[in-house]
Amino acid sequence: MTDDQLLRYSRHILLNEVGIDGQERFLAAHALVIGAGGLGSPVALYLGSAGLGQITLVDHDTVDLTNLQRQVAHTVERIGMAKVESAKAAIAAMNPGVQVNAVQQKADAALLQELVPQASVVLDCSDNFATRHLVNAACVQHGIPLVSGAAIRMDAQIALYDTRPDNHGQRGACYACVFPPTDLPEETRCATMGVFAPLVGIVGTMQAAMALQVINGSATELSGKLMLLDGASLSFTDMRVDRNPHCPVCAQR
C-alpha cells in the first residue's frame, strides 16, 4: 500500500479483524453491484469508501426526483443522469482510487454471464424477482458468493447465499432454495407501495458489510441465515435456510 492508502484506511488497519492483510484483500477485490438505487447507493458508497479495488455498477435507469428520498448516491444536480454514472461520480468524489465500471444496461442473462465470473462477490440490489433469479443462477453457475437484499414499505430482508463447498464439503443454500422460481409471491414495487427511506440505508450498509466480510474470509457465520427486518420496531428475526436437495438451480452443482 502507498502512504496515502495507509493513512486513508488506517481505521481499518487498526482492527484486528481487518489489518493490513484484510485491507489489501479489499484493494484487490472486485464487487459486482446489480442496481444503483435505494440499496445500491449505500452499497456503492461504503464499498468505495472502504477501498474496494474495483466496483462494477449495473443499472439501466436514470436519476429521478422521486429517487432522492432514499437513493443517497444521487443529487438534484444529477437528475436525468444515468444512475450508474451518478453513483460513479459520488464514489470518485470520496475515493478517486477506486476503479468504477458503469454499465447502463439491464442485468439480463447474457450480461450476467459476462460480468459475474469476473467478480469476487455479487451484491443484488435490484427490485424485482426476475432479476434476482437471473443473478442467483449466474452466481451458482460460476461459484460466486451472492449478497441479496430487498426492502418494501417497512419490511426488509438480507442474506448471504454461498454455494461454494465449505471445509467439510457442504454447500449452502442459494436464493432459489428459499424463493423457488416456480412459486414466486406477488411482485410489489416501492413506486406503488412506498418504502421507508432509512430502511434501504440499513439494508444496503449491511450488504456492504457482508460483502467485505466475504472478501476478508470472515463471513462463515453469515451464510445460511435469512435476516428479516421490521422497520417499524427496528427488530431483526433470523431464519435458518438450508439447501434444498431438489432446488432447480443448485441441486446439480
Give your account of this protein's structure.
Helix 5 links the parallel strand 2 and strand 3. The N and C termini lie far apart (38 Å). This protein is α/β, with parallel strands linked by helices. The chain has a single domain, classed as NAD(P)-binding Rossmann-like Domain (Rossmann fold). Strands 3-2-1-4-5-6-7-8 form an eight-stranded mixed β-sheet, with helices on both faces. It contains ten helices and eight strands.
Quick recap:
This protein has helices spanning 3-8, 10-13, 19-28, 40-50, 83-94, 109-115, 129-142, 175-178, 190-193, 197-216, and strands at residues 30-34, 54-58, 99-103, 121-124, 146-152, 155-161, 225-230, 235-240. By secondary structure, the chain is an alpha/beta fold. It starts with a helix and ends in a 13-residue tail after the last strand.
Strand and helix layout:
Blueprint: H1 3-8, H2 10-13, H3 19-28, E1 30-34, H4 40-50, E2 54-58, H5 83-94, E3 99-103, H6 109-115, E4 121-124, H7 129-142, E5 146-152, E6 155-161, H8 175-178, H9 190-193, H10 197-216, E7 225-230, E8 235-240
Parallel strand pairs: 1-2, 1-4, 2-3, 4-5
Antiparallel strand pairs: 5-6, 6-7, 7-8
